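[Meeting: bench + compute handoff]

Bench side (C.D.) handed over the final construct sequence. Compute side (W.E.) agreed to return the predicted structure before the next meeting so the bench team could plan truncations. Sequence as handed over:
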Amino acid sequence: MMRLLPLFPLNLVAFPGEKLNLHIFEPRYRELVRDCFTEGLTFGIPPYLDNAVQELGTEMRLLSIEKTHTGGEMDIKTEAIGVFRVRQFYRQAPGKLYAAGQVDAIVQDEVADPALRRLIAEQVRQLYEALGLRKLLLQLEPDFKIFDVAHHIGLSTEQEYQLLSTTAEQERQDMVHEHLARLLPAVLEAERLKERVRLNGHFKNLQPPTF
């Protein structure tokens, strides 16, 4: 069922379940935040890519206004709660400064392939260890969803949007598995190259071959 949703286009992709901190400074979006706070509204972030507001976006819930600055700017905490499709975009909501859209929700199939999840977890482990990001491994839950790691595996914004456009977890798993299969060899080779560069110039204790 379609409904009117305030929109805050940004040059980023937010994934369901993500916590996002934003600094709000434009008057139209300060108005949006005030309306969300006083009326209990949610708002949407459709990515702004290729000089255009995209059709898909992520619905956000305002969690708190952490700080209001003297100039009126705000620091807010939000949480992403779902994906929607914009059916009709309005540069201004009726009587408001901010944009809005007629949207409908996109239902997600959250069933994952356990074997593929284990394989992706191993790929992510190799990537993080190669990049010296072991702290991120501590945040990787055994039953993680693809959206939980999507910002931390080297995807471009356009690739993240492609991931957002999928409606099934297994399809997202396939996309990420293929991406990491392409990325990992290059990352591991770069690490080997760095190690060789570090070793060059050092005294080496080498065993001569027997011939």
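W.E. noted at the follow-up: Strands lie at 3-7, 19-24, 43-45, 48-49, 52-53, 56-68, 74-90, 99-106. C.D. will use this when planning the next construct.
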